[in-house]
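Researcher: I'd like a candidate sequence for this fold, 412 residues long. If you have to choose between options at a position, lean toward the conservative one.
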């Protein structure tokens, strides 16, 4: 990569992907759960202002506002040449008419249908990055990535992305097709307690992390909690009060740099590229004038002392509450162990016609306190919290180090 693409303002997606601005625009907050947001005109103006000021990666999902978000982006960018911006779109989230989440679906036929509708709403003939927002525990990642790879071959998709996945999943996906980028939540004020994908996985796969929802923790960066989504426990009650106190420790660091807390958070995410590869920060904005403030963060260079002070002020262990509600945490491949239930051992049919075990997630919590009993290539564990028996898949269970042997045999 040339020196200019290594500069503070630019990043490359993947090993041979496009060079984009270091800050991308996340559009989720512009759409309500069931449709239009508070002010479509203001939102459209914000999208247009971002592109006019050099932001060239727009992040959305087909389930944001039940399709409203994609239509909003198309409206905002009417008349803008398609080669001036890239679209990163997510799929897999199933919702009912009341907007309640029903689960995930990453089957090949389904994701191709999702994309067909998305292209219509976005008024375009392709998206630049297509990724499942969450994995479908009933569908192997190889089948999902293989189907997106077919869309790449057909010209409807330019690059493949992943979201909230483990290092093992990244490796499995990359064995099918090169992955352009992966996304995960990063915020200096509400950091993850564990690291899901080590740098080695990034270098092996060539897929750099894309920092997602950098200021999605705005309730901890100076904003009030009015309308804070109920599925974000860190922004409510005692958790929020505790996390506000933690976030307040960052104020002196921001002040000495002449930056706001939000700018410090963005600069911190971009600085993670030193260890993980090129990081693109996906940031939300509600008003056009916010774009200038956000882009100013790309000029904020944090010293080793600054980064060490942030680490000391906001250690991972200081964060109160989970990132999401329990039901949503259970859907994170990056944070939860994938398990096979011992009750009936249900199977589903793969694309090749062979029966395969159906994966599910343990929503109860960690089973690391149980007593493993080896059964073939699986491990049976009884969760002390629920009393239920689960078959853990070695290689996808944090209790076994995350990178152990992957399940590949029959249960006994």
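Model: Candidate sequence:
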């Amino acid at each position: 990569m040339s020196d200019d693409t290594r500069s503070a303002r630019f990043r490359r997606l993947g090993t041979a992907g496009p060079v984009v601005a270091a800050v991308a625009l996340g559009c989720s907050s512009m759409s309500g759960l069931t449709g239009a947001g508070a002010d479509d005109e203001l939102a459209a103006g914000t999208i247009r202002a971002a592109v006019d000021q050099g932001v060239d990666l727009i992040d959305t999902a087909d389930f944001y506002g039940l399709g409203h978000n994609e239509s909003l982006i198309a409206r905002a960018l009417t008349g803008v040449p398609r080669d001036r911006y890239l679209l990163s779109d997510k799929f897999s989230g199933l919702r009912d008419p009341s907007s309640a989440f029903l689960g995930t679906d990453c089957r090949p036929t389904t994701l191709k249908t999702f994309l067909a509708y998305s292209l219509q709403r976005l008024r375009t003939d392709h998206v630049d990055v297509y990724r499942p927002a969450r994995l479908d525990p009933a569908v192997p990642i190889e089948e999902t990535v293989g189907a997106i790879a077919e869309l790449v071959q057909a010209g409807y998709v330019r690059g493949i992305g992943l979201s909230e996945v483990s290092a093992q999943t990244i490796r499995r996906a990359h064995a099918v097709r090169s992955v352009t980028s992966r996304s995960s939540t990063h915020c200096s004020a509400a950091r993850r307690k564990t690291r899901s994908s080590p740098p080695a996985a990034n270098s092996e796969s060539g897929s750099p992390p894309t920092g997602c929802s950098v200021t999605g923790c705005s309730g901890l960066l100076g904003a009030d909690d009015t309308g804070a989504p109920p599925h974000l426990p860190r922004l409510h009650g005692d958790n929020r009060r505790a996390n506000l106190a933690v976030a307040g420790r960052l104020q002196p660091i921001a002040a000495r740099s002449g930056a706001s807390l939000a700018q410090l958070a963005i600069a911190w995410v971009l600085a993670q590229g030193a260890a993980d590869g090129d990081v693109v920060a996906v940031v939300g904005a509600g008003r056009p004038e916010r774009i200038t403030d956000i882009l100013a963060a790309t000029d904020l260079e944090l010293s080793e002392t600054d980064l060490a002070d942030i680490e000391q002020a906001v250690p991972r262990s200081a964060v109160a509450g989970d990132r999401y509600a329990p039901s949503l945490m259970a859907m994170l491949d990056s944070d939860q162990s994938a398990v096979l239930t011992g009750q009936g051992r249900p199977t589903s049919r793969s694309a090749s016609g062979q029966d395969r075990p159906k994966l599910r997630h343990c929503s109860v919590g960690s089973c690391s306190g149980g007593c493993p009993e080896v059964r073939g290539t699986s491990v049976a564990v009884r969760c002390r919290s629920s009393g239920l028996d689960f078959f853990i898949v070695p290689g996808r269970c944090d209790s076994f180090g995350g990178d152990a042997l992957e399940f590949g045999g029959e249960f006994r």
